[in-house]
Amino acid sequence: MSQPQPRFIILGAGMSGILAAIKLRTAGHTAVSVYEKADRIGGTWRDNSYPGLSCDVPAHAYTYEFAPNPEWSGYYAPGPEVQAYFEKVVADHDLMPIINFNAEIIRCTWRDTPGNWQIETRDGRIAEAEFIIAATGVLHHPKTPDIAGLDDFAGVKFHSARWDHSVPLEGKKIGVIGNGSTGVQLVTALAKRGIEVVHFQRSPQWIMPVVQFAYTEAEKAVFRQSREAIDAIRYDPVYFGNIQRFTKGVVDTESPMMKEIEGYCLMNLEQNVRDPVLREKLRPTYRAACKRLIYSPDYYEAAQRPNLLTITCGIDTVLPGGIRDKDGGVHDLDLIALCTGFHSDRFVRPISVEGRRGATLEAAWKERCNGYYAISIPDFPNFFMLNGPTSPVGNFSLIDIAERQWSYIEQLVARVIDGNARGIAATTAALADYESRRITAAKATIFGSGCTSWYLDAHGVPITWPWDYDTFAEAMATPEFEAFEVI
Ligand code: NAP
Q1: Band of residue 394 on the pLDDT scale cut at 50, 70, 90
Q2: 145 pocket-lining for ligand 1 (C-beta < 6 Å)
């Protein structure tokens, strides 16, 4: 190493970036800086604040392992509470002084000189580091749909991740386009408030029934006293077993686990949507869990309210005063909320990353985004990703995923520092072998069984970890160092 104290630059102060910063400092590293383009921490939980936002992973499981939170209000936590949790963790670990806000990194450049990486911010700041941790998130760049007439809408319109809280909702007629997790949470919340909603669904969704409940003060008092009581929920054999079964089901589409998931979703639809016409409208034509499953305790109940109209025939045109559907129905609207998802293939971009031997991230990812075990890219030494391309995605905690990835990354970091080396990166051969195995397996997962979703890359191949949870946990426990080039 050229420096006595290795320097680390973390891209992004969302869930993964906060994790990396705390882990590095806990390990004794003192030269750690976080660069965050916004003016607050929180990533996706900062950007999303639409009504009804909640985390569909049990709150005690959507928590850093090192920072349990006895104060969660219920089994599932509302979005603002999750954001507040991250803010408290940042404060508790005194991270604010090392976070550079309003600091959008536009370029990371590897140099074959001491210092390794140079970064540049949009406002011209330059810094150097031996290591870069890319914690830039997955669902970050809102996708605006290409729908005829959308620009001509005379009312208010915004994307769900850019919610304008200055716009009053009561008494308004709101059109919601899209029914991923966001659209479903939003229409459920609006409908329960008695607001008139027209929900435009291009594809219906399978809905996994779940039970939400609040924790009593007595329960919270127990959580404050007992880590075991918290862990009993975090590692509840039913919940954790469900994840293991879910991930086994996802990779074996004919497995009993997958049939069980399908059975729950089908039973939910059949038993809880009384009107046969609405029931058929809400019945998907693809397999359950092909798209990310919607976990909802109350969507079907909301969908049957008279103030929530579900339109499944498609959108013909957006008019200045509303939306005309493909059956010719015209829906007058005051506001359109675009719950149309994100450009999930951006990952680190638009940051320009230039590695060794003239490598650029843009060129490396021309065909598809990837990384060896989702973490390292050949010719980008000491550039490690959290929740990067080919990471596990699904109905489980991405905090847990990032924590396991961190345990892998810290072993790579130690190899460089302890070996007095300059850097480490996966070899081209190792990535090619991983990708060949991964793509074959990914095509056979339920995600590749014939639906559209943000899990798919431009070739229609799931850009996900295609093996089960235990395989991931095992892979992250110890790096296969022969897959890496040390320089
Ligand atoms: P999404 O799952 O990508 O859903 C986008 C929706 O917009 C889909 O229903 C899609 O229809 C529709 N759509 C896109 N373009 C359209 C067009 N031109 N015309 C009509 N409809 C269009 O996005 P999301 O709901 O924001 O969720 C993204 C992810 O965020 C989730 O899968 C989840 O991982 C995460 N999330 C998590 C939580 C949580 O509780 N943990 C909450 C919210 C979001 P098609 O299906 O037909 O393409």
Answers
A1: confident
A2: yes
Average pLDDT score, the chain: 96
- State whether 107 and 133 are in the same domain: yes
| 454 within ligand 1 shell (Cβ under 6 A) | yes
The residue type found at 268 is N
State which of 315, 338, 361 marks the end of a domain.
338
CB atoms within 10 A of CB 266: 14
Residue 2 has pLDDT above 60, yes or no: no
Is ligand 1 within 6 A of the CB of residue 289?
A: no
Instruction: Report the C-alpha gap between 166 and 475 in whole angstroms.
Output: 47
CB 428 within 8 A of CB 484: no
User: Which ligand 1 atom sits nearest the alpha carbon of residue 55?
Assistant: 40
Residue with CA at minimum distance from ligand 1 atom 36:
181
* pLDDT, tens digit, 9 for 90 and up, residues 65-112: 999 999 999 999 999 999 999 999 999 999 999 999 999 999 999 998
Residue 477 and residue 430 in one domain? yes
Give, in degrees to the nearest 5, the angle at Cα 477 between 349 and 420: 75
Q: What is the mean pLDDT of residues 262-285?
A: 98
- For ligand 1, whether the C-beta of 181 sits within 6 Å is yes
**Domain residue limits at 296:** 150-217+248-338
Residues 6+ positions from 256 with CB-CB distance below 8 Å: none
CATH at 421 = 3.50.50.60
pLDDT digit string (tens) for 404-449?
Answer: 999 999 999 999 999 999 999 999 999 999 999 999 999 999 999 9
Asked whether 175 lines ligand 1 (CB < 6 A), one says no
Task: Give 182 Cα–ligand 1 centroid separation in angstroms.
Answer: 6
Residue 414 CB: number of other CB atoms within 10 A?
11
Q: Would you say the CB of residue 341 lies under 6 angstroms from ligand 1?
A: yes
Does residue 367 sit in the same domain as residue 252?
no
- Say how many Å lie between the CA of residue 361 and the centre of ligand 1: 27
Alpha carbon of 177 to ligand 1 centroid (Å): 9
Atom of ligand 1 nearest to the CA of 62: 41
